[in-house]
Amino acid sequence: MRTMVPSAVFLALSLAFVQAHAASSNADIPNQQALDALEAKASQAMPREQSYLYAKLVRQMTELSLNQYQAGNVGTAKGLLKRIQKFSSTICRSLTGKDKRLKNTEILLRQTAFRLNELLHASDYQDRLLLEQTLAQVNQADHAAMMSVFSK
């Protein structure tokens, strides 16, 4: 009897934590309007800030793409992956030696590559080519950002 009460309390607390974590993770997924606003901000930003803002945009697009794949909206998710490729190449072109938050840019790109790799391993066979290409683009941008960090 003594062990049942603490076990029941532990079970109730852990269920509450799991529900709170699930609710907060859904709140972290950006919507299309937030992505559009961030894209506009990145395109109008100073050159020193563009790489970070584009990396942030790519990270948020990846999270939305993962959510769309899980929801069964494969067409939307593929469209987002193509846009991620475009912005990853934009990051490579916009990197200068004097970027603000260069290390943060590199961290965001590394996290994005990790999430894309997770999606690659969980995806269907027909989606793998696009995911592999997107992952390669993000890895290339990550490598360029890392080389910029170390060249300072």
Layout of helices and strands:
Blueprint: H1 4-27, H2 32-44, H3 47-71, H4 74-94, H5 102-122, H6 128-151
Helix pairs in contact: 2-3, 3-4, 3-5, 4-6, 5-6
The helical percent reads over 70%
Poorly predicted parts: 8-25
Question: Hey, roughly how much beta strand do the residues contain?
Answer: under 5%
Major sheet attributes: none
Oligomer: single chain
Report, as a whole number of angstroms, the end-to-end distance. Answer: 64 Å
Number of continuous helical runs: 6
* Total domains: 2
- The whole-angstrom Rg is 19 Å
What is the SS-derived class? mainly alpha
Globally, the shape reads: globular
Estimate the mean pLDDT confidence: 82
How many β strands by DSSP? Answer: 0
Please provide the ordered H/E string of secondary-structure elements: HHHHHH
Explain what you see.
With 152 residues, the protein is mainly alpha-helical. It folds into two domains: 1-29; 31-151. It has helices at residues 4-27, 32-44, 47-71, 74-94, 102-122, 128-151. Helix 2 (32-44) packs antiparallel against helix 3, helix 3 packs antiparallel against helix 4 and helix 4 (74-94) runs parallel beside helix 6 (128-151). The N and C termini lie far apart (64 Å).
